[in-house]
Amino acid sequence: MDELVTQIAAARRRAVARAITQMEEGGDSARQLLARLREHIAAIGAPVHVIGLTGPPGAGKSSLSDQLISRLRALGKRVAVLAVDPSSPFTGGAVLGDRVRMNRHATDPSVFIRSMGTRGDSGGLAKPVRDAVTVLTAAAFDVILIETVGVGQSELDVMFVADTVAVVLTPAGGDHIQTAKAGIMEIGDVFVVNKSDLQGAGRTAKDIQDMLRVRNDRAQPADEAGEWSVPVLLTSALAQEGTDQLWEALYGHFEHLVQTKQLAWRRGRGRVREMQELLGRKVADEVERRWQNDALWQDLQSRVQSDRLSVVEAVDMAVQNLLKD
Ligand SMILES: Nc1nc2c(ncn2[C@@H]2O[C@H](COP(=O)(O)OP(=O)(O)O)[C@@H](O)[C@H]2O)c(=O)[nH]1
Ligand SMILES: [Mg+2]
């Protein structure tokens, strides 16, 4: 164990990879390793910046990651990329594409690229990702990029691990934003219209601005800590345009969090989100178990089935019973 911690602290590639596999699998040894890594992190005070990249498949997240790695390496920073596929227990084709996109960096000892499935899945979807971030933080990476595949609830959960969330879209017209609207439009700290070499990028950027205005109207009034003004950037990973500005925006958001002392709050909020998600799952599992085995729950079920009890009443009674003991 200590040997593994020492090797992770020295950023030995194989040790880091092995530790992340442990985090995917979960269990007692992973938990012990995490505790040791946290001690190490507390001792070194690693000022890591965790960035989430989300958006529809094919938007160019991996291509942008590749560009960002180059920029960060030029600045002398060490970079890790986690390509996460929460919709699949296996690390499949999309993630394979991710690796190809970033291949030229694969042999750089200051770059670590890893794809993750959610095999273990005992503690919610974000957990293995959060734990992998702990491993990479202990290995003293300066920046950790988390790329998620797809657009669903699980991607949102994963994004709450990040300090800065970039939502990557393309000039695919209004419907694109409509589909993306369910959730990810709410969590972006930076918006990116990639493939700006294609037509309609300016229009898409304007649609996003309009959407953000609605979002701001709904938001709480700014506290004295100050508000972050969400930028909408045009990039072309293909033409290598706008990617330096993207890094500046991402880092600017991190500086904002640090200067306004919101970083710790934000990380705490992410942990609370994860707690809520995990609690919800555990309660759902428990309900499922009772539904099958418990006489009272069976009775509620059959009364609803034969229309002797309304659904709402049955749910109220079930919840009361759940909370009773
Ligand atoms: N025209 C154009 N194509 C791009 C750009 N960025 C990425 N692509 C292409 O879009 C496809 C998907 O890119 P990828 O980075 O794998 O997207 P991801 O699924 O979001 O990670 C690839 O064929 C890329 O070459 C861009 O700025 N302009
Ligand atoms: Mg990708």
Q: Your description of this structure?
A:
- The protein is of the alpha/beta class.
- It has 2 domains: 47-260, P-loop containing nucleotide triphosphate hydrolases (Rossmann fold, 3-Layer(aba) Sandwich); 277-324, no CATH class.
- Helix content is 57%, strand content 11%.
- The chain has helices at residues 2-9, 13-25, 28-44, 61-74, 93-101, 126-138, 153-159, 174-181, 184-187, 201-218, 243-259, 263-293, 295-305, 311-324, and strands at 49-54, 79-84, 111-116, 143-148, 164-169, 190-193, 232-234.
- The chain has a 7-stranded parallel β-sheet, sandwiched between helices.
- Helix 6 (126-138) packs parallel to helix 7.
- The longest helix has 31 residues, at 263-293.
- It is globular and about 70 Å long.
Count of strand segments: 7
CATH topology (level 3) name of the largest domain: Rossmann fold
Question: Ligands in the structure?
Answer: guanosine-5'-diphosphate, magnesium ion
Counting structural domains, the number is 2
| Main structural class | alpha/beta
Q: How large is the count of helical segments?
A: 14
User: How many strands, what sense, and barrel or not for the largest sheet?
Assistant: 7 strands, parallel
- Computed CA radius of gyration, to the nearest angstrom: 22 Å
The helix content, as a percent range, equals: 55-70%
Shape: globular
Poorly predicted spans: none
> Strand fraction band?
5-15%
Kindly provide the name of the CATH class of the largest domain.
Alpha Beta
Order of helices and strands: HHHEHEHEHEHEHHEHEHHHH
Strand order of the largest sheet: 3-2-4-1-5-6-7
